[in-house]
């Protein structure tokens, strides 16, 4: 067996100790006589897993007591529809900031439920910068203000939580949750798919302030009604039990690494190294404004695009995989989430230098 | 390690060869250098898994070409809402047969989207029989007729596909799919959670005839719109990739067992043995009419309910677990899905006889 460096934007690399533990426990979990895969979600074994999952996440993110933590299905994409259905309440408008492909998707679906106010957009700069917060149009009658904390395709990340001028702040943190410190209490709602920094695909975390819960529209399916799931500890119906368990293992690994502060330092180091290598080269280029470059997803284009294919082939031959950029922006993209070791980033940098030297 | 016999109603026992293969492949799948847990859902490795999953399911169930096979999230419970939203089209009524707790849940949610015609109900017999099909009220203007093929709580199973008199037949087969032969073409739509006979929790299979797809209501989230997911091979957004893989392993195990015919014989044998043991005893009793007893979930009550606790404790001490009946019906329940070996059923029967002898 030889494990490669996997730069996939998600699902993505997992910490090897997590994989090893999952393997060792696959047939039997803690003398239970069964695999986690086989456990009733209402049984005493799984209760332990579920409780530890929530308390570890609360500890890592410092989630205040007046926030519910929900573990749902459907992905962040499903939340594009279920957020307005849950928290518009009697309002008819919501504000959205458009900073890239994922903001656009959220906006498109919100249109089905309310009038969307585009508070700001960086479309005219091809999503390479975040519009100055002071210039945002904030509608005081809007139910909330939505932003995408990190754009995986465009490689743009908010350097800090934006000021919302009193509006309830909602954030899609699918691709940077748990990678940096984050003031949960500045938000009304944070949501994230797990398949980047938290585990495998299949779980959607929703962290929502209690006062926003309980006034969903009438036709929302109960399994996506925050109030119903909160009342039932996200067990209104059978959850993806094994995925919860794996997310739990990733959280315990994060705690062992020293928690968010430690992993953030690690992520700063890794991303600085790679941006430095890109900026110092004449072959590679990252178009994103330095103030909002993503620590998670680093796109770069080659000065000569006929080199794209040879670059990808040679990278793969060197065990550096899934580097192809999204078709909408072309070029390359290195996703370096929490679980990507510094050694992987250094191997990529070495390879890039060698490729530049020989091409 | 000692694995117990797990009679959980779901999530439930999985075939040991599947667990062993999952364990062996956990760190790396087929020389890919990565775990299935880490694979991009758009990558070439996962494409193989996804294609085999669909073609194996089509082969096992004999799904005709004019049916779409979708792999969704949210559980069968989410489909209680999304089925009417997808296939009511311009109709305003739907027929439902009420044969137990799961029918009731489906009916309750359907009320949010249409007028529900209760075609038949066995509530007055405490769900111990299925009303004669000839007595069902079938509204020719209804969009479809819904039935629950197997009721896990009440232990009632349709012995054959009911005649629908031309109405589009919709079936919740969550707890008996792949356990017996089934004429897919008699249905417009079949849906099932995977956590009983198909794998771990986290995937919802929807098998739907093409002509029903493409006229969902406007406000359905795209990830639950059958047309959107069919166009995208269920990859409109990131699916629970590892769960797809595990369902795929279970399907391959089923094929190795000889497919549906072989597993059905196996299920007939196991359930006959257990019903025989119950019927011959004076301590145990199953209240369900012999014509519609479930092969999957076998509830039984003890003549003296003060023996319930000692029974469960002694069973567990003998490695026979998760036998407690649902709180709504009390007593015991043995769920004996495909993956429960005959040895498990025989061990339960032996234990029951011994317990009866000594109490």
From TrEMBL, chains A, B:
Function field: Catalyzes the reversible conversion of 3-phosphohydroxypyruvate to phosphoserine and of 3-hydroxy-2-oxo-4-phosphonooxybutanoate to phosphohydroxythreonine.
Protein name as annotated: Phosphoserine aminotransferase
Annotated residues for binding of pyridoxal 5'-phosphate: 76-77, 102, 152, 172, 195, 237-238
Pathway assigned in UniProt: Amino-acid biosynthesis; L-serine biosynthesis; L-serine from 3-phospho-D-glycerate: step 2/3; Cofactor biosynthesis; pyridoxine 5'-phosphate biosynthesis; pyridoxine 5'-phosphate from D-erythrose 4-phosphate: step 3/5
Subunit description: Homodimer.
Enzyme Commission designation: 2.6.1.52
Cell cycle in keyword set: no
First-level EC class: transferase
Keyword annotations: Amino-acid biosynthesis, Aminotransferase, Cytoplasm, Pyridoxal phosphate, Pyridoxine biosynthesis, Serine biosynthesis, Transferase
GO BP, sorted A to Z: L-serine biosynthetic process; pyridoxine biosynthetic process
Reaction equations catalysed: O-phospho-L-serine + 2-oxoglutarate = 3-phosphooxypyruvate + L-glutamate; 4-(phosphooxy)-L-threonine + 2-oxoglutarate = (R)-3-hydroxy-2-oxo-4-phosphooxybutanoate + L-glutamate
Compartment list: Cytoplasm
Origin species: Candidatus Methylobacter favarea
């Amino acid at each position: 067996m030889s494990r490669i460096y996997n730069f996939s934007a998600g699902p993505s690399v997992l910490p090897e100790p997590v994989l090893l533990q999952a393997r060792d426990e696959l047939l039997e979990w803690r003398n239970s006589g069964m695999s986690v895969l086989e456990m009733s979600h209402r049984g005493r074994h799984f209760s332990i897993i579920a409780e530890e999952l929530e308390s570890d996440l609360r500890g890592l993110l410092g989630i205040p007591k007046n926030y519910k933590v929900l573990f749902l299905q459907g992905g962040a994409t499903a939340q594009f529809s279920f957020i307005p259905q849950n928290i518009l309440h009697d309002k008819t408008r919501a504000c959205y900031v458009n900073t890239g492909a994922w903001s656009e998707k959220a906006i498109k679906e919100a249109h089905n439920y309310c009038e969307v106010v585009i508070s700001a957009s960086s479309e005219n700069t091809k999503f390479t910068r975040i519009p100055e917060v002071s210039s945002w149009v904030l509608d005081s009658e809007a139910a909330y203000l939505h932003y995408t904390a990190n754009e995986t395709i465009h490689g743009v990340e908010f350097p800090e939580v934006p000021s919302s001028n009193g509006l309830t702040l909602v954030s899609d943190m699918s691709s940077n949750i748990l990678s940096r410190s984050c003031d949960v209490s500045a938000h009304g709602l944070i949501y994230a798919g797990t398949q980047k920094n938290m585990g495998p695909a299949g779980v959607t975390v929703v962290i929502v302030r209690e006062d926003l819960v309980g006034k969903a529209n009438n036709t929302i399916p109960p399994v996506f009604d925050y109030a119903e799931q909160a009342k039932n500890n996200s067990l209104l119906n059978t959850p993806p039990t094994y995925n919860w368990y794996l997310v739990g293992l990733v959280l315990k690994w994060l705690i062992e690494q020293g928690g968010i502060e430690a992993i953030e330092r690690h992520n700063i180091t890794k991303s600085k190294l790679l941006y430095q290598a890109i900026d110092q080269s004449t072959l590679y280029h990252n178009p994103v404004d330095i103030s909002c470059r993503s620590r998670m997803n680093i796109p770069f284009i080659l000065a000569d695009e006929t080199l794209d294919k040879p670059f990808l082939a040679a990278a793969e031959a060197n065990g550096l995989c899934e580097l192809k950029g999204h078709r909408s922006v072309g070029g390359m993209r290195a996703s370096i989430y929490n679980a990507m070791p510094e050694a992987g980033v250094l191997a990529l940098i070495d390879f890039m230098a060698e490729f530049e030297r020989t091409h």
